[in-house]
Structures are given as structure tokens and as C-alpha cells.
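Handout for the seminar on molecular recognition.
Each group receives one record of this type.
Step one: identify the two inputs.
Step two: read the structure output and locate the region that could contact heme C.
Step three: write two sentences on what you found, then compare them with the reference statements printed after the record.
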Amino acid sequence: MSKSIIWVGIFVAAFAGLLLLQHFTSDEYSGGGEAGYGGMGGGASENTTQAGGGEELSGAQLFANFGCVNCHGAEMQGTKMGPSLAGVAKYYNREKLIAYLRNPEANMSGDRFDQYKKDFPGGLMPSYGNRDPKDLGKIADFILSSK
Ligand code: HEC
């Protein structure tokens, strides 16, 4: 919830900045007027880089951000916690992969999952059904593009 407040702040600040800029450039008016808008969003806009608000992240960044790397490794090479995703593209199209991420247990198909159960007895692939499908789509594209 505080995130949305920050975003609103950023928008207001950007808008005020544009108005101010237009005002100065069209009137060749320099000086006095800056007091009104100047300070409004200064603090908020500082947060732009830190907020990390989902939307602009690439599939690779989301793969790291969502914690996939913890189990599947930074290069998808696999870890003790999860299998390599190296050859996985051949089993999925985009939709299937998104469906799998949203609900792994209902979408496990193939003998390799029996092997996974033996290899990762304590670990289960978490479900990401509560995440933004757009983000899952980006992650799917990322996985499918790195064969
Ligand atoms: C807690 C560890 C863990 C995390 C975090 C995790 N996975 Fe998994 N993942 C697994 C395990 C273990 C399996 C093997 C299937 C099983 O046992 O449920 C798996 C299976 C998969 C598969 C299926 C592989 C196949 O052969 O079809 C894909 C695709 C996958 N994970 C992608 C992801 C993505 C993308 C993320 C992040 C959004 C992620 N995983 C996060 C542990 C994890």
C-alpha cells in the first residue's frame, strides 16, 4: 500500500515538474515562481530506483526476484533444492509453462517428475498463482528462450 503512495507521489512530482518547465520555457520567466511546486515530490522521486515496482523488470530479473534462482540456480543449472531447467523448454509452450508456475502440482506430467520426487524429497516447486500473470509470462519467455 505504501508503494502505491510512492507511485502517486512520483506521478504528481513529474506532472508538476512538466508544468513548471512549460511555464518557464514559454514565458522566459526565470526566478521567483519556483517556490510553489518545487519541493512537492523531491523526496518521493528519490525512491524510483529502489521501489523495484515489478513492471519494468525483465524475465531474467524476475527469475531472480521471485527466488527461482534459490532452487534452480542463477544459470538455471539446478541446485540441491531444485532441478536444472536447461532442457525444459521442449516440454512446454508459453501457456503450459505459465499454468505450471501457477499450479505446479496439477500440472506435473512426465516421468521426470517421479525422478524429481526422488532427487528433491524435501523440496517442492512452490506455486506462483498469486503473482501477476504478466510477470509469469515474462519468466516463461525467459525460460523458453534459453534452451
Ligand atoms: C523451493 C525451491 C524452488 C523454488 C523457489 C522454485 N522451484 Fe521450480 N522446482 C522446484 C522443484 C523441487 C521442482 C521439481 C518438481 C517438484 O518436485 O515439484 C521444480 C520444478 C520446476 C519446473 C518444471 C521442470 C520440468 O522438468 O518440467 C519449472 C519450469 C520450474 N520449477 C520453474 C521455476 C520458476 C520459474 C521459479 C520461480 C518463479 C521456481 N521454479 C521456483 C523447486 C523450486
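Reference statements: Residues 2-51 form one domain. Confidence is low (pLDDT under 50) at residues 28-51.
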